[in-house]
Amino acid sequence: MLFLRHHLPCRPYATFGCRRVVAGQNALQQLQSAKFSRLQSTSAVPAKKSWVERLPLKVRPYLYLTRIDKPIGTLLLFYPCTWSITMAAYALQTPYTVPLTFISLFGTGALIMRGAGCTINDMWDRNLDKGVERTRERPLSKGDITMPQAWTFLAVQLSAGLAVLLQFNWYSILLGAASLSVVTIYPFMKRVTHWPQAVLGLAFNWGALLGWSAVAGVTNWTVCLPLYAGGVCWTLVYDTIYAHQDKHDDVNMGIRSTALLFGPHSRQILTGLSASSISLITYAGLLNGQAAPFYLGVGLGAAQLARAVYQTDFESRESCWNGFVACGWSGFLIWMGALGDYAYSMYAAPA
């Protein structure tokens, strides 16, 4: 009885204690598993891979250097060209083959020259990229491409760009060549001024001047200058939004930007720049005698730009990227307005 009294009460307690230990161990294992899963989800390579990964290994670094897997940059360079080409075709009432030809040539040129700009940018940044999470995967930073190889590749890109430019008249060739100085100094400007976005705007909207001269033989400065200025303001909007996603890295790298300059006042300033952009493009349309379809496109572009500025969370990288892409759609809508106006004018023109 003494034996029973001494041991029987302990058995259920021991069993309960063991269950508590096992339960605690299970909970700890679940916690560790969940923690590991979270770490995996944040650090693992995204499941969705670029189409570049399907190509031969040797060509991938060069394609990544040009950012060809992110076409938004090419489109942002392309749209001001399309505005100018289409507005010139509208003013001169050219056959549809004329804007179609030049839009094709400028599309090819935008793809090539945007890639060349990215190559120049990464060559400037190769030492700053090391140790920075968002740039350490660039081909030059990883060592997938050496500097001599980058120089050779840049020469190929510029030669291809020149081949496209030589399809135009001499006035356009000289005007296009003049833009190379702005393209070359842009990567350096982010180390000396808080306004590199303005320099990018000067380079990225050169097509607003060049597109008209390609169609007409000379640039109509009365129309093209406000169109160009409107494009520069548009670039300041979308590239400031883009710069906000990198602002913390930029401080560590010694890079300046309008995102850092505008800071907490970014939304108000970008609203003003958006209004300036739309006003200048509208004014260019008035000077060119555009009709209702053009202004419908500009109005839709204005609404899209306002939505992008209003909805962007400047402290969220994902939101900044989405806002950046959304700004690109505003440029597309403006082009659609100009294209619709041109098509309607051709349809309505007397035989």
UniProtKB/TrEMBL annotation:
Gene Ontology MF term list: 4-hydroxybenzoate polyprenyltransferase activity
Superkingdom of origin organism: Eukaryota
InterPro entries referenced in this protein's UniProt entry, alphabetically: HB_polyprenyltransferase-like, Prenyltransferase, UbiA_prenyltransferase, UbiA_prenylTrfase_CS, UbiA_sf
PROSITE patterns recorded: UBIA
Cofactor requirements of the protein: Mg(2+)
GO cellular component, one term: mitochondrial inner membrane
Gene3D superfamilies: UbiA prenyltransferase (1.10.357.140)
Membrane topology: Multi-pass membrane protein
GO biological process: isoprenoid biosynthetic process; ubiquinone biosynthetic process
Transmembrane segments: 72-92, 98-124, 145-164, 198-219, 225-243, 322-344
Pathway in which the depicted protein is active: Cofactor biosynthesis; ubiquinone biosynthesis
Listed HAMAP family: UbiA
Annotated function: Catalyzes the prenylation of para-hydroxybenzoate (PHB) with an all-trans polyprenyl group. Mediates the second step in the final reaction sequence of coenzyme Q (CoQ) biosynthesis, which is the condensation of the polyisoprenoid side chain with PHB, generating the first membrane-bound Q intermediate.
Keywords: Isoprene biosynthesis, Membrane, Mitochondrion, Mitochondrion inner membrane, Transferase, Transmembrane, Transmembrane helix, Ubiquinone biosynthesis
Catalytic reaction equation(s): an all-trans-polyprenyl diphosphate + 4-hydroxybenzoate = a 4-hydroxy-3-(all-trans-polyprenyl)benzoate + diphosphate
Name used for this protein in its record: 4-hydroxybenzoate polyprenyltransferase, mitochondrial
Annotated organism of origin: Cylindrobasidium torrendii FP15055 ss-10
Pfam families: UbiA
